[in-house]
Design brief:
Radius of gyration: 20 Å
Helix content: 25-40%
Strand content: 15-25%
Shape: globular
Distance between the termini: 34 Å
Order of helices and strands: EHEHEHEHEHEHEHHHEEEEEEEHHE
Oligomer: single chain
Length: 370
């Protein structure tokens, strides 16, 4: 860090999400942050990031690869927002570099459980580094409020978690990398690790078994890239069983633009029920004793948010919380750690395997221990 306390950031991968991180960090400038460098082999993405940073008054050093950025010694914190399939090697290179960098890595941590495990093990040898995984849906104000209600005990012992995401198809990315499972890990890893993370958080337990049904029914079927048709599913149902007996269910549809809310979350305990709606930002909760007439409705908001961005302010809060952990210099652990990232990927991998095999998949089949 600079003598004045400025925390210097570098962004590896400045496609759509990398530039979103750049904008969020600009809005955190009053907290003493500055983006000083970017790394991306895609020249048009570099230029878009340079145009943005120029509008912020931030001069950037530009590198075509992450190794050059690492060797520059310019940064205290790195944001890894490159395509999913590149996360593993980039993270290993960061962890093994002589200079310690704190890291915020976009979800998913990696595309395979084996690669996630290697990153987790490598990071154990660098305890001076903080690594947080970008499972930022936890920070969306209505979701954060529902987490608070659940953890406060108002619903009792959680028995069921139902998450519905009905949304638009996958966006176009550089070189269409997100159209194929080999690059993304599969839709249930790439997109849905967010929801498996939330299920585990609400349930307060680790998963034991997964059953899924999904297919490519509408989207991308008429697309062709280098002679290949995309293989990413566009809808699925997933059931996750947890070690404490609670269950989660995901209802995913990516051709449902005609939806009022993109995410609807319901958590049911033995004495009450809570719900969160995004982007309406509404939370409802009630008890079995009070019944329908006793259901309370709240509008969730967080006054700390200075930029809503693509994820309703959650990326801003994610950065704010990670910055606090960085400044705490080892006193505070990252809010979403490598183990959280690993398990969210493991559930997604098990779900993808369940669709392929047409059966329940035990988590132990994809990960031997947590």
């Amino acid at each position: 860090m600079e003598g004045d306390g400025t925390v210097k950031y570098g962004i590896i991968g400045v496609g759509m999400m990398g530039r979103e991180h750049l904008i969020n960090l600009h809005h955190l400038q009053p907290f003493g942050v500055q983006v000083v460098a970017i790394a991306d082999p895609h020249v048009p993405s570099q230029q878009l990031a340079l145009d943005l940073s120029a509008s912020f008054g931030w001069p950037l050093e530009v590198f075509s690869g992450h190794k050059e950025l690492l060797d520059s010694g310019l940064c205290d914190v790195l944001v890894v927002s490159s395509p999913n399939m590149t996360h593993y090697q980039i993270l290993i290179d960061i962890i093994n570099h002589p200079k310690a960098h704190h890291v915020l890595v976009e979800k998913p941590l990696c595309t395979t459980v084996a690669h996630c495990r290697e990153v987790v093990e490598a990071a154990k040898g660098r305890p001076e580094m903080l690594v947080q995984v970008g499972l930022e849906y936890r920070y969306m104000p209505p979701v954060a409020k529902l987490i608070e209600i659940v953890k406060g005990g108002a619903l009792g012992e959680v028995k069921m978690v139902a998450i519905r995401e009905h949304r638009f198809p996958f966006l176009v990315k550089v070189h269409n990398w997100n159209r194929f499972n080999v690059n993304t890990g599969g839709t249930l890893v790439e997109k849905c690790c967010h929801f498996f993370d939330l299920m585990r958080l609400f349930a307060g337990a680790n998963p034991v078994r997964v059953m899924a049904s999904g297919a490519i029914d509408v989207n991308h079927k008429d697309e062709l890239y280098d002679g290949k048709v995309p293989d990413i599913i566009d809808n699925a149902y997933v059931i996750v069983e947890f070690e404490n007996g609670s269950r989660g269910m995901l209802d995913l549809c990516m051709f449902a633009e005609g939806s009022k809310n993109e995410q609807e979350i319901a958590v049911v305990g033995d004495i009450g029920k809570g719900e969160a709606f995004v982007p309406e930002s509404i939370v409802r909760f009630g008890s079995r004793n009070a019944g329908r007439e006793g259901v309370q409705t709240l509008t969730a908001a967080d006054d700390r948010i200075k930029y809503d961005g693509l994820h309703h302010g959650s990326s801003y809060l994610e950065h704010l919380n990670f910055l606090d952990a960085v400044r705490a210099k080892g006193i505070r652990a990252p809010a979403v750690d490598l183990q959280d990232g690993l398990i969210s990927v493991a559930i997604g991998v098990a779900a993808q395997l369940s669709i392929e095999k047409g059966r329940f998949v035990k988590i132990a089949e994809v990960i031997d221990e947590f």
